[in-house]
Amino acid sequence: MELPSHISEEHLPKHIAIIMDGNGRWAKLKGMVRTFGHENGTKTVRRIVEFSARIGVENLTLYSFSTENWNRPKFEVDFLMKAMLGSLRKEYKTLMDNNIRLNAIGNLAQLPERVRKELEYVMDQTKNNSRMTLTLALSYGSRDEIMHAVKEISMLVKNNIISVEAIDESVINKHLYTQNLPDVDLLIRTSGEQRISNFMLWQIAYSELYFTEVLWPDFTENDLLDAIASYQKRERRFGKTSEQLKA
Fold first, then answer.
1. Dist CA 200 CA 73 (whole Å)
2. Dmax over Cα atoms in the chain, in whole Å?
3. By C-alpha distance, which of 1, 61, 7, 5 is closest to 225?
4. Neighbours of 244 (CB within 10 A)
C-alpha cells in the first residue's frame, strides 16, 4: 500500500500499542447501552488491524480486557467474553487472508474455558503467519505481569539456577508476558484520557505517547496515520543528546 507523502515508510514504528478507550461513552452519547459501543468498537478493531498490516506495521498490541475489567457489572463482562469468542471465530479467516499471526498476553487462565480454547486454537493455526503479529492483551495488568516475573525469577534464585548478580533487563524481559515482543515504539490512547491504566509499564519506558480525543468506535485509518505522523516528527533520544544523535 502506498502511504501518504507525509508518512515515511522507512520510519514506521515497529510496535504500536493501543489503549482502546471510549466505547461506553460513545454509546451513551447515542442514547444506547454500553454493549452497543463494544459492538461498534469491534468493527474498528477489524479495520485498524487490517490497515496496520497493509501499511507495514510489524507488531500491533491492543489492550482488550484488563485485570480490572473483571470488576465491571457481570452482564457487561459476560457480553465481552461472548463477543471475544465470536470475534475469534469470525476473524480467523481475516487473519489467515492477511497473513497475520495472533498472539495473546495476560493471565489467560482467568478466561472462560471456551474463550481460552478458541484463542489457543486460532493462535496455533496462525503461528506461521509473518506479515504482522497482532497481540491481544486479555485479563492483562502490568503490575500483575511484573509480580509474575518477580516470582519466577525469585524461584530461579532460590533454586540456585541463577544468581542475584545475574539479574539484568534481559532476564526480566524473558519472564514477562511480552517476552517475544519488542518494546513499544508508539502508544496510542483514544477518548481523551491521558493515563496509562496499568498497561505495559515496563515495555513503554521509551515509547512515544499519543493521546487523541477520538472515541474508539470513531477511530479511523486516518487517525492512525495522524498518530504515526506525530511519532515520526519526534526525536527519540533514549537518554542521549540531540548532538550525539546527529553525530
1. 25
2. 60
3. 7
4. 10
C-alpha pair distances (Å), 162 with each of 6, 115, 155, 175 = 49, 36, 9, 13
For 101-152, what is each residue's pLDDT tens digit? 999 999 999 999 999 999 999 999 999 999 999 999 999 999 999 999 999 9
CA angle centred on 66, ends 47 and 197, rounded to 5°: 95
Q: Is 121 exposed, middle or buried (0-12, 13-18, 19+ CB in 10 A)?
A: middle
- Spatial CA neighbour of 114 closest among 145, 142, 89, 134: 89
Question: Which position has the grid cell 526525536?
Answer: 235
DSSP structural state of residue 207: P
Alpha helices in 18-98 (DSSP H): 23-29, 34-55, 74-97
Other beta carbons within 10 angstroms of residue 101's beta carbon come to: 19
What was the pLDDT predicted at 244? 61
CA separation for the pair 9, 119 (Å, rounded) = 32
**Whole-model pTM over 0.90:** yes
Give the residue numbers annotated as catalytic, written as ranges.
Answer: 21, 69
Residue 238 clears pLDDT 70, i.e. is over it:
no
Kindly state the helix (H) or strand (E) to which residue 16 belongs, with its residue range: strand 15-19
Please tell me the total number of residues recorded for the chain in this structure.
247
d(CA 222, CA 108): 33
